[in-house]
Design brief:
alpha+beta, four-stranded antiparallel sheet, 413 residues, six-stranded antiparallel barrel, 32% helix
């Protein structure tokens, strides 16, 4: 049965092979046009799809580039500066007041009227020269009266002395009583005391009379004259207003007083050389020497008062002038100099931002002397740091940064 089934299947297969295929009907023009339209549509769709895919890919690439550029722009671009080691000596410029080495107002020690004066302002005078004469008739009369009283007292003293000597001689022969001798000795001692008192009074009035003449106490210049002939002169002893007649200044040597800030006080010691510059002498310097300081800080100004002496033999420098005093104080080689725009003022203290491995790092520093556009850093730096110039206030530790340029502490690239 199985064999018959196989043979029957082979016979059918042969018949199918030998049977010719029916021929397809011929293709008409309408069918060709339809097929061509479909092909065109497919091509157009493919083109639009390609353009769409190309646009999307372009936008994706542009978006990626924008994100990359945005990320790069988010990294701050900064400039850095290298700390400069402080110089062994530092020049500081401080304001100074030029004053006479010796100055004194000349007052009268007696009352009267000015009879004459001999020197006006700007005159150079020598010690002991007569400046003015005061008329004091009351003192003259009092002196005459005191001298008369002294003469009377001296006459009484001579008489008392004779009486005393006589009684002491009679006492040896017991011609007088001891009481009489004692009375004579007492009278003599009393008259002697009166004479001494009158002599002191005469000397006092003679001294007042000598004050009628005003003499220069030292070599100098008359810088003020506050009286004239006929003016009432009051010594102030009677409660009146005491007015100086002249003002005398010694200017062949000048004192220049300078208020040194506290941070320079330890370096400002006597013996330092100082150079003075004045606006009325452009290009000219005057040399002086620091001779003494007050050895105390003024608690109101936090400054140390220092005195610089300057020789002025020709009188070229005028007292009362304003001068700039240049000191060269020794510096500390362990300190560094930075521009002031590198500092960050944080609530935890003063900081500077440095770059380490392309990242910002905040360092605590301690400031020293302030030079205006630069400042001294006493501690907190080693000298090999790259310090960020004008760091943003928002900078934090670990923030990534990129360096645009490097400068020195003086500001040069």
């Amino acid at each position: 049965m199985e064999f018959e089934r196989v043979m029957s299947m082979q016979t059918q297969t042969k018949e199918q092979i030998s049977t010719p295929e029916p021929q397809s009907p011929p293709v008409t023009g309408t069918q060709r046009r339809t097929r061509r339209g479909w092909l065109t549509a497919v091509v157009i769709v493919a083109i639009f799809a390609g353009l769409l895919v190309s646009g999307i890919l372009g936008r994706i690439r542009a978006s990626a580039a924008l994100r990359k550029e945005t990320a790069e722009m988010a990294v701050p671009t900064i400039s850095v500066v290298s700390p400069q080691r402080a110089a062994p000596s530092q020049e500081i410029v401080l304001p100074g007041n030029v004053q006479p080495y010796v100055t004194a107002p000349i007052y009268s020690r007696t009352n009267g009227y000015l009879q004459a004066w001999y020197f006006d302002i700007g005159t150079h005078v020598k010690r002991g020269q007569l400046l003015a004469v005061i008329a004091t008739p009351e003192v003259d009369q009092q002196l005459g009266q005191s001298r008369s009283n002294l003469s009377t007292a001296q006459a009484n003293l001579r008489l008392a002395e004779i009486t005393k000597d006589r009684y002491e001689g009679l006492l040896k022969t017991h011609a007088v009583a001891q009481q009489d001798v004692d009375n004579a000795v007492g009278t003599y001692n009393a008259n002697k005391s009166i004479v001494e008192a009158d002599q002191a009074n005469v000397k006092q009035l003679e001294a007042l009379q000598s004050f009628e003449k005003i003499y220069a106490p030292f070599d100098g210049i008359i810088t003020a004259r506050n009286t004239d002939v006929g003016a009432l002169v009051d010594s102030g002893s009677s409660g009146g207003v005491k007015t100086d007649l002249f003002h005398l200044s010694q200017v062949d040597r000048l004192r220049v007083y300078v208020n040194v800030p506290e941070e320079y006080s330890q370096a400002t010691i006597p013996g330092l050389t100082a150079e003075l510059t004045l606006s009325e002498f452009p290009g000219t310097t005057f040399t002086g020497k620091l001779v003494r300081t007050s050895e105390a800080i003024n608690y109101e100004t936090r400054t140390l008062l220092a005195e610089v002496d300057v020789a002025n033999p020709t009188g070229k420098l005028l007292s009362g002038s304003y001068a700039e005093v240049h000191f060269k104080v020794p510096g500390k080689t362990s300190t560094y100099i930075l521009p002031v725009d590198t500092l960050l003022f944080r609530k935890e203290g003063l900081r500077v931002a440095v770059v380490k491995d392309t990242k910002a790092q905040l360092l605590a520093v301690m400031p020293g002397r302030d030079f205006g556009d630069t400042i001294e850093i006493i501690s907190g730096l080693k000298g090999n740091e790259s310090v960020i110039v004008s760091p943003p206030d928002s900078v934090v530790n670990g923030e990534k940064v990129q360096i645009a340029q490097a400068m020195t502490a003086g500001g040069t690239q």
